[in-house]
Amino acid sequence: MIDLQPLVILREIDRTSSLTEAADRLNLTQSAVSHAVRRFEERHGVTLWEREGRKLRLTPAGEYLLGLAARVLPQLEHGASVLEDYSRGRRGAIRVGMECHPCQDWLMRLVDPFLVEWPDVDLDVTSAFQFGGLAALLGHEIDLLVTPDPIESPGVGYRPVFDYELVLAVAKDHPLARVGQVAPSDMARETLITYPVPRERLDIYTRFLVPAHARPRRHRTAETTDLMLRLVASGRAVSATPDWLLRDAKGVTGVRIGSGIQKSIHLGYRTGALPRYLEEFMQLAETVDI
What we know:
- The protein is of the alpha/beta class.
- Helix content is about 40%, strand content about 25%.
- It has helices spanning about 5-15, 20-25, 30-45, 60-85, 105-115, 135-140, 205-210, 225-235, 275-285; strands spanning about 50, 55-60, 90-100, 120-125, 145, 155-170, 180, 190-195, 220, 240, 250-270.
- The strands form 3 sheets. Strands 3, 4, 5, 6, 7, 10 and 11 form a 7-stranded mixed sheet that branches.
- The chain is rod-shaped.
């Protein structure tokens, strides 16, 4: 392997045109510089420079090594800077897992200012988990989990970022739009539309219908919020929806489900020392309105 010190020495001599000044800039004595070069020459069986009076003239081997220094040293210096960024938490990657289908717009409002503040941190968002969001977090597939249903587990912490109420979205001319709150028995005549999530993860079932031994007339799913609300507005279905999604929805209103289903969106993370950029991402999330 080629030692780096002779490359650094040759580059400084080329920059300063002086062995003495190069030694000063490298915080070495002139004899130490000469010794380092002589040791390199003996090891590789080459001569790097020849003296012409008080000047130094590089040999072909020296010219080659100088060219090598010009290519290699900037990359190594950049690598050192990158490693320093990692050590200070200025560079890295955040993989965000989503268990909250309607949170995409909120997340995008968070992403833009974060990327401006942390240009060297990559960010990726996924909702495809082989074994669920918590397993993906514990398995280091993701670094943060956006979830309305935090599951306690050793090594995992949760930070609430905003609260909301789950309401029943109905068309504005739907009979249920005129009631103060929906009873479980009211759902027997309705088609309920939800995201494609297992029923045991749906609060409309676990906290409202199942305890009352009730169920909707029909249950169907939709992949997107826009399609779901369009079907609700047309009177074809009702949907358990976060209240914030109905603020600008046309032809749709929200009705309280029973005595109210209060929820919070949480950010799940692996406990321990967190990189600065991950900590600041979570702090920023607490300031972005839904």
